[in-house]
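Exercise: predict the fold of this chain.
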Amino acid sequence: MKIAMQKLFVKLSGLLACTALFFAMSSTSNTCMFMLYQPDVPDELL
């Protein structure tokens, strides 16, 4: 039983790491995940 719990923990932690990496990459590449609203950037900032 203890070995089965350890295997489950390893699989779930790998899934959590992949999910965290996906959200980190998607949040840094886009200013907004939903393409419906992206505010205009002022020219002074460009």
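Check your answer against the key: The longest helix spans residues 2-29.
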